[in-house]
Amino acid sequence: MFADRAKIIIKSGKGGDGHVSFRREKYVPNGGPDGGDGGKGGDVIFLVDEGINTLADYRHRRKFAAEPGEEGGKKNCHGKNGADLILKVPEGTIIRDAASGKVIADMSGENKRSVILHGGRGGLGNQHFATSTMQAPKYAQPGQEAIEIEVQLELKVIADVGLVGFPNVGKSTFLSRVTNAQPKIANYHFTTLQPNLGVVDMEDGNGFVIADIPGLIEGASDGVGLGHEFLRHIERTKVIIHIVDAAGTEGRDPIADIHAINRELDAYNPDLLKKPQVIAANKIDAIYGNENEIISALRAEFEEKEGIKVYPISAVSGQGVRELLFHVRELLAKCPKEAVVYEQEFDPALGFFKDEPYTITRAEDGAFVVEGPKIEKMLGYTNMDSEKGFLFFQKFLREQGILKELEEQGIQDGDTVRMYYNEFDYYK
């Protein structure tokens, strides 16, 4: 069975605890604190691997965890950082929060590598807590906790062209004719239970990727049969080819079939009907001549009324196929070049800290002091030295309502905001 969905639990590495120790040397009777810092926990990273095309590796294993950071040691020894966990997925994989269904990352287009969970920051050793009045602190900072969430992995096949049609109209035969794909072909309803991909090599080298989307039935958008499992693969395609049986060998009405499939596409996602369509009237090898009442009716219904071209073809003999492929390529040339990539809707770190408390106070020098577990933990998971990390932290402050509360307390442009060991100048 083609594995295109999986639900797994991922966990980042806990930060190593800071260490409590003191110098103990023969000629240093009152040695100071020398406890080292804990190591950073490992990140959970998803990586696109061009060599795999299913999520089969995640069907039989449920839990994946990055390494925790090691505890700090004596003599200011820093604990070892935990190893990152790298999970390889095929291109087109969408990572969703299992609880809300919101998109965390879409491994498509330029997004080949994505850090989904950041490891916890290592705790500070007791050497950092020495003061003039407390020269021998007997405590150290614990490492930050790991983040654990359940995610839904969902593979959406990336192809330029999607083949749709009811069972037994010849989609698999057509795909094997025009590409190097070798799908299983048999005269059984729902014989194709997985999307088959193939590359069409055109004479001038400008080929495209085509996918045989498994047979649809009425009610597919409501989840009847394997409807939802198949419909989502059409979302990334740019052009849709309707394949119908022009010879009537199945006793079906091709016009009704096209309308039925378009209703399912519209019910699942109305944007799908905005994609260019073309109709392949298949099996003309089984009729007398190149035209019959079915093909004439298709032309009258779709070419004349909607401008959708109809091409009589034979997937078995290859008749008419070349003309169809050149028209498809013309349609593709008018489509946007960039891949369909879904925007992030959910950040695990933001969700993890949303219920933590925080306080806003004014310091003697007029600075706004923002403190609390929400702030301290978030700082530990954010690289403030990078522009991306700083923008991520700004988004966190905005979404958590912290910036709004600062404004309500009268903060002005140029005022100082102090958050533990970080200071910022506020500008709206």
TrEMBL record:
One GO MF term attached to the UniProt entry: GTP binding
PROSITE patterns assigned: G_OBG, GTP1_OBG, OBG, OCT
Cellular compartments per GO CC: cytoplasm
Domain OCT stretches: 350-428
InterPro entries, sorted: G_OBG, GTP-bd, GTP-bd_Obg/CgtA, GTP-bd_prot_GTP1/OBG_C_sf, GTP1-OBG_CS, GTP1_OBG_dom, GTP1_OBG_dom_sf, OBG_GTPase
Residues reported to bind Mg(2+): S172, T192
TM regions (residue ranges): none
Region annotation (Disordered) ranges: 14-40
Keyword field: Cytoplasm, GTP-binding, Hydrolase, Magnesium, Metal-binding, Nucleotide-binding
EC number: 3.6.5.-
Family label: Belongs to the TRAFAC class OBG-HflX-like GTPase superfamily. OBG GTPase family.
Function noted in UniProt: An essential GTPase which binds GTP, GDP and possibly (p)ppGpp with moderate affinity, with high nucleotide exchange rates and a fairly low GTP hydrolysis rate. Plays a role in control of the cell cycle, stress response, ribosome biogenesis and in those bacteria that undergo differentiation, in morphogenesis control.
UniProt xrefs under NCBIfam families: Obg_CgtA, Obg_CgtA_exten, PRK12296.1, PRK12297.1, PRK12299.1
Protein name: GTPase Obg
Organism of this sequence: Roseburia faecis
Lineage: Bacteria, Bacillati, Bacillota, Clostridia, Lachnospirales
